[in-house]
């Protein structure tokens, strides 16, 4: 195995949404060689057009943290968890897989403003974007013969990404839908925190929090300083609220790449170590040093 493929960022060129989609399809073919990609292709097209400002009635993405690349990261992370679960024997049908991966594509559509919404950016919806994402998903699939009866399941899965939402209160329709919700809540955290540019992107996240009136952060430095604490909260959430489905990522990397390690955890640890180094050595001009150079 080449040196290039020993780390997460060497597996797929995440700067190209089509390459990420191709990897998702490769994974899904390994689950089912006859997998029907028509619904995934349609959802991917809708979301890419929406974020680009080419979907009728919408302005396009103007948030620099919750952008299209974030959505694509979460789509791939979700697919990897689903694959790992199936490798480990989970009973998930093709419809379950479609429901899970498309939920990942739809999970941040609530940040996108309509054409007549010209005040500020989509970041103002930070605290309400999940319900907006549910509404947009319903708009797309309410009359769909395949997904029309799944709107409540879409809702329940999407709400698992809400950090302040009590997942235990959700009355999931089936154990499989519950697993998919746990997976999306997990993928949303793994995908963003394992991005190689996660430290650098936190500056944009702080600005979104300011516009969205998210309490608890006094400055960019304060958000950086609390990232380690956030990781501890995340670990507890993985264990106690999200069904420990994060463990399926290792099964995916072993089956897909022959790598017997959890690459998401490794990359998150590297990002947190870099943030700690910046805070300890450059507290005054931390922004200059946040980018992890190749």
Can you characterise this structure?
With 294 residues, the protein is mainly α. The protein has one domain (13-289): 3'5'-cyclic nucleotide phosphodiesterase, catalytic domain (Catalytic domain of cyclic nucleotide phosphodiesterase 4b2b). It is 56% helix and 2% strand. It has helices spanning 17-31, 38-52, 68-87, 94-106, 129-141, 151-158, 175-193, 198-211, 220-225, 227-240, 248-257, 263-281; strands at 58-60, 113-114. The chain has a two-stranded antiparallel sheet with strand order 1-2. The longest helix is centred in the N-terminal third of the chain and has 20 residues, at 68-87. The model is unreliable at 1-5 (pLDDT under 50).
Summarize the structure.
This protein is mainly alpha-helical and 294 residues long.
Shape by Cα distribution: globular
Q: Helix fraction?
A: 55-70%
**Which band does the percent of strand residues land in?**
under 5%
What gyration radius follows from the Cα positions, in whole Å?
Answer: 18 Å
Write the H/E string, N to C: HHEHHEHHHHHHHH
- Any idea of the CATH topology? Catalytic domain of cyclic nucleotide phosphodiesterase 4b2b
């Amino acid at each position: 195995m080449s040196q290039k493929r020993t780390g997460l960022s060497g597996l797929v060129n995440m700067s190209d949404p089509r390459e990420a989609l191709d990897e998702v399809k490769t994974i899904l073919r390994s689950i089912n060689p006859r997998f029907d990609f028509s619904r995934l292709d349609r959802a991917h097209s809708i979301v890419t057009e929406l974020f680009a400002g080419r979907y009728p009635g919408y302005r396009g993405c103007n948030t620099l943290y919750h952008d299209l690349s974030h959505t694509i990261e979460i789509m791939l992370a979700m697919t990897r968890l689903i694959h790992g679960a199936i490798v480990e024997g989970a009973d998930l049908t093709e419809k379950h897989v479609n429901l899970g991966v498309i939920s990942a594509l739809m999970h941040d559509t609530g940040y996108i403003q309509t054409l007549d919404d010209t005040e500020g950016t989509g970041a103002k919806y930070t605290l309400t974007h999940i319900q907006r994402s549910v509404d947009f998903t319903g708009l797309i699939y309410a009359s769909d013969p395949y997904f029309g009866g799944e709107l409540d399941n879409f809702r329940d899965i999407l709400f698992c990404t809400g950090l302040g939402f009590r997942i235990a209160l959700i009355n999931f329709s089936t154990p499989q839908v519950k697993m998919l919700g746990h997976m999306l809540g997990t993928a949303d955290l793994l995908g963003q925190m394992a991005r190689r540019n996660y430290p650098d992107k936190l500056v944009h996240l702080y600005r979104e929090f300011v516009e969205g009136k998210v309490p608890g952060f006094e400055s960019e430095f304060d958000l950086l300083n609390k990232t380690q604490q956030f990781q501890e909260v995340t670990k507890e959430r993985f264990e106690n609220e999200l069904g420990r489905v994060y463990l399926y990522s290792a099964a995916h990397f072993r089956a897909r790449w022959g790598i017997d390690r959890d690459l998401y955890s490794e990359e998150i640890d590297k990002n947190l170590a870099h943030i700690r180094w910046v805070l300890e050595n450059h507290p005054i001009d931390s922004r200059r040093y946040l980018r992890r150079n190749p």
